[in-house]
Write a structure and sequence with these properties.
six-stranded parallel β-sheet, Rossmann fold, 13 helices, Quinone Oxidoreductase, Chain A, domain 1, alpha/beta
Length: 386
Amino acid sequence: MTNSDKYVIVRPENLELVKEDIHPHDEEYLVRATYLMLCDADRKYYKGWRPKEILKDKYPLCVVHEALGIIEKGGRHTMLPAGTRVIPVANVPCFVHNKLKYATRAKTGRDNLLLKIATNKEKYPDKGNACEACRPGGAGETYCYDGLFMSSNADGFLRDRFNVPMECIIPVPDDVPNEVAIFTEITAVAYEGLRRMGVNSNDAVMVLGNGPLGYLASALLSKIYKIPKEKLFVTGLDDKTLSYVKDFATPVNVAKEKIPKALEKKIDKVFECVGKDAAEETIDQAIRIIKPGGTILLMGVSERKIPIDTRTVLSKAITIKGMSRAPSGAYRKVLKYMKNKEFQELLKPLITDVVKIKEKKDIVKSFDLYSAPGHYGKVLLDWTDY
């Protein structure tokens, strides 16, 4: 058995340390956390910024789904050696978590991750017999009918050690540094959105919102999809943060001016990366500027229902899609892109704070930094000295 320090949110702004004994099953790896990254969902759970009825069902919850770690040991059927740098995939589809080996272990009380599925042990024995989304030809594992997502309906990675199914472990190439590899999960989400939209180099594209997700989507559009600066537009509210994209995209400060009327019906694809209370406005902007027959991808998350101008959607034959998670294949793809030195340089402005984690107060500090008014970018939690 190996000791694990797990930090759980028991109520808003209240973390508790839970000590657990864990071990990897035959097809799992025991991973030691080296770097973690906070996201907006983690902040909402910590601050209590989600509806009370949702928080009541979530707490206590171990958050964080963006992680980088090192394999300490693997189960009998695993192949990667100890010391391998890895990214754990946050999404665990039904045909992975529902195997008999996990369910049996959960019943014995030895599993610290997948307790929720002990009653369905033989429901999805393999991918061919998985839920309709996960089966070959289905919508994909990110739309799994019975999947687990770390820090949502299963505990996340806010701990020094955790077990991960071998299907959900991605090795990190040697030429991808830690401060770049930690962006794998959010970059994979951006990449999967672009892939599903069928972007090509001839498209005129607008990214609404220049937060981390919008910034990464813009960087991929420029460096991987080769969208030229004059056809790639990025909106934001602050000249300083918009300056980060000015070398490869055309920034539009919507706090100072409306999106130029000259762009109306000129944009082939729009990526809405704002969400929250501004979603009504940004979705309306997307509908206004998109070409007839164009496609809008919604990636920003809102807590309330958002009214949409369906008359214009119908008259312009607009396609609206939604997406917020990435499959393991997208993780592997973006790690290949991250070998590119130019792309690595583009990620540097996004890490605004680095906090060494040695005890609970350091985690609290990380959440406070990330929750500060006007904060931009990502907070990196360094666990190497824990």
